[in-house]
C-alpha cells in the first residue's frame, strides 16, 4: 500500500486535482499538483515518449513535498521523474549544481539520501506557479466582467 507521500501530484479519489482554496501556499501547491497530474495524464494518453522533462517533474514533485514538509528520497524522486535512474540522477546533479535543489542532512540517521528544494528553488517555483495563480484570478475577473454585460 502506498501513502500520499509516495504519490507526487496526488489527486483526490474523484480523479480531479484538489480545488484551489486556502492560503496562497496551498493554492500554489494545488497548481503544482495539477500540473504534475496533467503531465502524467498526457503521458498515459500519448505514449510515444515525446514529453520527457525529468528535471521539471523533479521540481514539481519537490515543490509538492516541500509544501507537505517532507524531504524526498532520491530513489523515489528518480521514479517520479519518469526516466531511467541514470538519466534522472544526471538531471538531479544539474539541479543541485544550479542551486535549485539541496541534499538533506538526514542521510546520517538512516542512510537514505534525501533532497529538497533550496530557497532559490522554492523562489523560482513560486514565481512560476504565481503566474498561473494570477492568470486564473485575472481570467475570473474578465469572465465576471463579461457576464455582467
UniProtKB/TrEMBL annotation:
Annotated InterPro entries: WH-like_DNA-bd_sf, WH_DNA-bd_sf
Q: Which domain of life is it from?
A: Bacteria
Protein name in UniProt: HTH marR-type domain-containing protein
Which intervals of the chain are annotated as region Disordered? 1-24
Amino acid at each position: 500500500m502506498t501513502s500520499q507521500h509516495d504519490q507526487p501530484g496526488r489527486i483526490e479519489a474523484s480523479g480531479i486535482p484538489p480545488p484551489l482554496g486556502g492560503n496562497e501556499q496551498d493554492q500554489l501547491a494545488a497548481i503544482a499538483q495539477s500540473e504534475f497530474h496533467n503531465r502524467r495524464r498526457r503521458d498515459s494518453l500519448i505514449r510515444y515518449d515525446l514529453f520527457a522533462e525529468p528535471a521539471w517533474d523533479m521540481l514539481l514533485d519537490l515543490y509538492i513535498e516541500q509544501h507537505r514538509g517532507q524531504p524526498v528520497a532520491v530513489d523515489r524522486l528518480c521514479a517520479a521523474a519518469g526516466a531511467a535512474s541514470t538519466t534522472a540522477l544526471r538531471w538531479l546533479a544539474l539541479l543541485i549544481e544550479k542551486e535549485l535543489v539541496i541534499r538533506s542532512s538526514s542521510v546520517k540517521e538512516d542512510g537514505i539520501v534525501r533532497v529538497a528544494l533550496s530557497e532559490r528553488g522554492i523562489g523560482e517555483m513560486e514565481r512560476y506557479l504565481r503566474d498561473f495563480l494570477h492568470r486564473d484570478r485575472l481570467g475570473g475577473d474578465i469572465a465576471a466582467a463579461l457576464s455582467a454585460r
